Amino acid sequence: MTSERTAIPLIVLHSRPYSDSSLIIETFSEHQGRIPVLSKGARRTGKQSLRAQLQMGVLIEACVTGRGEIKSLVRPEVIESTAGFYGESFAMASYISELLIKLTHPGDPHPSLFSKILNCFKAISTRQNTLLSIRLFEQCLLTEMGVNVDYEQDVNGNAIDANEFYRLTPFYGFECVAMDDKNVESRSSHVPLKGEALLAISRQYLSDAAVLSTVKYINRRLIDAQLGTTKLNSRELWLKWHGRYQQTQKASLSMQNNKA
């Protein structure tokens, strides 16, 4: 990728300190994919506002220069900011960023992902259609990774039957199974999936909660296959937050019961 002298839109995915005064920021562009950039002096005294602006989920416009893997970020301007991420929303937003950083390569163009990423961060920030936006992002990312799932035919070439159940094998597809197959029912990694849900997914009818839950399961299996042994820190972050949230809820309920 050559130097870019014209300002381009960039989505901030993640930032980390570099030297005493700078930041290395993972960004995502529409036509050049993921671009790691160096923002010189962003941490200097008097530039707190710049550092605060370059947060996860923010859409900026800037020039990107340099020929190395890490480019230089020049004259960044915020185009659209989020309401901020805290607790559960921070874990969700971190999940989006981490998938992009771990599954895409710098400089590889993924133009169809750009709008999905923006929509995801907006949905998480505003808490509107959050789960649907995340599932659609995951589907788009998997497609960009070359993972194409046939939701209308099983591995043997037979049409998916709405009344049958199937199990997913990553890299192969769906295999019809009998519900009395104990080997299927006893293994959580092979959850039987209803054909009706698979057909709904093929038509992108995702408004039903059960269908959306099926999409989550399928996406997770396929993403894990792409990650291999690589772990997602954002999942651990979400589990820790969820554990603390449940403890807080239990403590609050206990206090209410004691007052009663």
List keywords for this structure.
single chain; 260 residues; OB fold (Dihydrolipoamide Acetyltransferase, E2P); three-stranded antiparallel beta sheet
Any overview of this molecule?
- This protein is α+β, with helices and mostly antiparallel strands and 260 residues long.
- The chain folds into 2 domains: 141 residues, OB fold (Dihydrolipoamide Acetyltransferase, E2P) (Beta Barrel), CATH 2.40.50.140; 63 residues, no CATH class.
- It is built from 8 helices and 8 strands, in the order E-E-E-H-E-E-H-H-H-E-E-H-E-H-H-H.
- The chain has a 5-stranded mixed barrel.
- Helix 2 runs antiparallel to helix 3, helix 3 runs antiparallel to helix 4 and helix 4 runs parallel beside helix 7.
- It is elongated and about 65 Å long.
- 28% of the residues are buried.
- About 2% of the residues have low confidence.
- InterPro entries: ARFGAP/RecO (IPR037278), DNA_rep/recomb_RecO_N (IPR022572), NA-bd_OB-fold (IPR012340), RecO (IPR003717), RecO_C (IPR042242).
- It comes from Pleionea mediterranea.
- It holds the Pfam family RecO_N.
- Keywords: DNA damage, DNA recombination, DNA repair.
